[in-house]
User: Fold these one by one.
Assistant:
Number 1:
Amino acid sequence: MTRVLHMPTELDQLDGMVAQLTELASPTLSEDKLTSFEIAVMEALTNAVQHAISPAPDKPVAITIDVQPDRVRVVIFDAGARAPDDLYDNVPQPHEIDEMSESGRGIPLISMLADDVLFQPGEGGNRLQMVFNKDPSP
Amino acid sequence: MIKVKQGGDGQICVVDPATDRLTAANATTFKDEMWQLIDKGEYRLVVDLTGVSFVDSSAIGALVGVLKRLGNRGEIVVCGLSGSVEKMFRITRMDKVFPTYRDSAAAAAALSERL
């Protein structure tokens, strides 16, 4: 099952979109994995809105979710300025961020909680793909 | 957005964020209102997350901002963590930064002992 959704670049749209995506992913992912999914998708969508809000406030964030029996794949495309190519390279663990830092935990959380991350920045926008695998049966 | 009640003979301030989700959408408002409490002289704070089912990194950042604003003038603790919120505190190690209690009564009692 594949769905394509669009979200205005407004922070108050985030919670509703994340709730919708989490509901779509719920048949495949365990409760704990679904928590990881919800956190990572929230961080990724927040980044997408914040990156796109200034250069492209009228262009919505595009989200594709593909739910399969063994995994969930989410692709987020924002029309923001091209992000650095190495944004997702050598990302620290969330607990390695200075504990007194008020920001900088989003990408470490995405990298830690998704099973696979592919980030492709471009001149027309930035594409982030995250894969969440179904936990193996006990 | 926050709801405030006094505990520990009026020396402790128990804060309910009064939202199901503390995220980028409302974390700045939460932080601003917490700062106002501190600026009014509330230096012993319990943030009761019993009614909060989800926090993101913006919420974690806001709590750190409150902690920094408070500095060494007092103490801030959290209580009522469950599910996703507990997981977020654990993986960001915020459970080592903020003393964590089961509920607001336990948190207020612990703060009262340190007065």
Note: The longest strand of chain A covers residues 125-133.
Number 2:
Amino acid sequence: MLYIFCPHCGSRSQNEFAYGGDATVKRPELNKEISDQDWDNFVYLRKSPRGKHLELWHHISGCRQWIKVERDTSTHEIFKTYKADELTE
Amino acid sequence: MSQDFRLDNIGMVNRNKKISFTFNGKKYFGYEGDTIASALIANGVHLVGRSFKYHRPRGFFGVGVDEPYAILQLERNNERDPNIRATEQEIFEGLEVKSVNCWPSVSFDIGAINNFLKMFFPAGFYYKTFMWPPSFWYKIYEPFIRMAAGFGEASIKHDKERYEHKYEYCDLLITGSGPSGLASAYAAAKNGARVILAEDKPRYGGSLLTSDVNIGNQTGVEWSEKIITELKSMSNVIVKNRSQVFGYYDHNMLVMSERIGDHLPKTQKYLPKQRLWYIRAKEVLISSGSIERPLVFGNNDTPGVMLSSAAKEYMKVYGVLVGKKPLIFTNNDSGYETAIEFKKNGVNPLILDTRKEPSSDIINEAKNLGIEIKFSYVVVAAKGYKKVKSADIAKISDNKKDLSNIENIECDCICVSGFWTPSIHLASQSGNKSEFNEKIDAFIPKKSKQKENTIGSANGKFTLEETINEAFDKGYEVSNKITENNNKVSIPTVVEKKSTDHDKFWCVPLPKGKSYKRFLDFQNDVAVTDIELALREGFRSIEHVKRYTTLGMATDQGKTSNLNGLQLVSDIENKVVPQVGHTTFRPPYTPVSIGAIVGREVGKHSKPTRKSPMHEWHEKNNAVFVDAGVWLRPRYYKQGNETLFEASKREAKNVRKNVGVCDVTTLGKIDVKGPDAAEFLNRVYTNAWLKLPVGKARYGVMLREDGIVMDDGTTTRISENHYHMTTTTAQAANVLSHLEYYLQLVWPELNVNVVSTTEQWAGAAIAGPNSRALLMKLFPNTDVSNEGLPFMGYKEADLFGIPAKIYRISFSGELAYEVNVESDFGNFMWEKIIEVGKEFQIQPYGTEALSTLRIEMGHVAGSELDGRTIPHDASLEGLVSKKKDFIGKRSLSRSAFTKPDREKIVGVVPLDKTTSIPEGSYIVKDPKAKLPNPKLGHVSASCWSVEYDNPFSLAIIKDGKNMIGQKLFAMSPLKNKTIPVEIVSSHYVDPEGKRVRA
């Protein structure tokens, strides 16, 4: 079970969090034309990298903040965590 | 009653407390502190089971977790416990155990015929024998395998025992209280670290309990007692015995099972039987020790053949002799320690050493004691069926290939020592890639991946001095990293006998003309020939060989067999062991009971139960409840002998005719506040929200980005920047997360806050033509007329002194209101409604009537919004704004969602107006069409329409819009029904919606 550092609460066990997927996906802006292909990429297509992955976790049984976690998908090593509005490196 | 094999002056069991127990129905006694194994051996019992495949007699092989043989079935306090290791289970008064895998008895076992049919049970016989014909599987093969397989019988009763989970955090977890565990725990604890020291046996000390050593001028036992006593007295240390750390998971999370009540006749009051510890440790020191390796020779599975270290432990810890004419068969010095111990207790052993001319302190001591030793000698085969009676021994040539001088000698046990295998399981589970150490012919941990270090013999250090020095240093070093303290304790001097190198020999060749079975894996009956066969058949990867032959599988997970198996594969393949590699070690290290894994999450504790504030009233009024997620909701209120069908019909009719009241507290409620709240709702919902005036409610539908309907509900503008959102009961939590996602990550510039208020409000839906009349009586000072409080209006009002909120919204399709009060007043509100409503013939109604009412109105709910429907499918396209953008809008223009024959919700009525249509039925054109019959759609919800007194269903079918008026069929293969139906509008009752606006 992972041990995730919540920037708001401190280190907590994984069972307090819900996984939220790739954190680098940006929602297309509202009221803007977008091709079927681009919209499809946004809704469905995700990379499944081996290694570093910036991902979202929701501290659902804690502060209810969405946070960004930089994790190695093969070793589970967590390098850094960020608040939702923090700029990632 | 005397015990023939009990020694008087040695051992740690409590001779003042006799304990009686039964084994296979026969009564025996032992002493407090005995295991089943030690007590039975003391009584001269060695036959305890039958092997898995050939049903060969089984005795005791080890003295702890590695035991492959003595797996018993236990009865304790009327509970059945399978797969108990006799070497671990301590005896208690009245304990009952019996042998497994044998019939009719362990002594005369019919299954032993397999032993003579063994040509039919080669490696992989499961795959070969039970192949064809396929039709035999279900009725013949599977029952046969099920009957033959496995060791114990699980109980089918509910386990009344209590199991607990515990979460713990520490600086340093140390697994094993042998010399390295004790020394490192002591050094770290003295340096201020918070330490947990876990020992799987009842006694602390590990190898110190049985070795003849001296630490700091004390015997090993005295030293370990001193250290444990001091550790126990320290507030920063938790010391646990009977506790096995069995799993090493990510981020230094380890799991340990503590057996609290297993050694007692009955679990103590206020204590669980077992406790599962989830331990998050900053650092871990693995001091799990090592397990002696067997030597492989003919019939080496005969009862009486056992590990030499086990024989020593039975003597030193339990005061029990495993035999009176012992043969020690060894390739290293450890066997000598056992021989010396026998000699000291008045028994003359014979040592067979595979080495030619070894020399060391221990060997000299044995010689000086007058112990007979034969060098370059091996056991060729054990003789005797249910117990060793003699052994064929032989001289072995220097190249270890040829046997000579074969003779038979009498003996009653053969103690084998093939050197030591470090227990690297936990290190390996942590992700540590092990490396093969040529010097000890075994794998040891390599570079740490997580924060762990392996110390002592688990790390291949087999001298005490080295172990103690390393452990003190590591304990200090690791604690210093965490606490930054510098309190270093001095390391005691160690006196031990020097030993010399072991012989790399491990498997005795067969003499000419003999075909003795030489076993590698004792629990699964895997012999040398099985591995040879597997390799001949082309299996190469050790993982495949394992699965094909079952080497190293089952409850002992090959603790004594793995390495010899690898040796054999590498010998045949002409490789070296590191090239072959080893199979993966996975948790658990030892079997863990299902009870411990489940903990307290059983029965109604498996999930929380949420109840509305009116729950007690419902109970008192004969409500029959139904699970709605984790909520309990009244399904119907039973009157007399009413069935569900009768009651729900009565309740629904009463709503249509008079007035009913329904507990709607469970609806999700979310407060949405902030200057940008309107803009936010406008993006979340498919319809327009910017112009909703204060004091008005609006029905809304929200989508996921893929265009699928996520949830629906009404949201009310309470004040300029304050909205009260309702969600369905099931989706409440998901909707909150969804809103938080967009506010925190996508549109952080929006100044809006959301918070769940579900539990803050108690809700009652008052529905029916009499509802306004009732409301006028409940709120005499508030104008609730159609003009004062129109459809979708909202008002705050006073309910007999209690502040209340009235929303004029309707799910039932009738003139209806929802009244909310603070949860604490929920019961007050409910009782007032019932009391005042009497004159209007009010009746409470449950979820079943609620469903009936919404289905015949064609209102959609979870069964239609099932994660596959877009607004169009549920006839909600009128709520989809064409002007503004919102979450998921772009997806709605995808080609699949705009197809002209897209699914749509319709109503379904059986032509005979009497046959109810099962939910889930298919709608088809031709019931006799060839299978697979193309289906148009499915029936999502069914009810008995109280308005028309006939069955009515909702269905979502292809091109539904154009299907209305058609005669089709509803088919339910599950219920074996085919019903001719007519497709009608989904708005079966009051299609113009006049009633809600009345």
Note: The two ends of chain A are 26 Å apart (CA to CA).
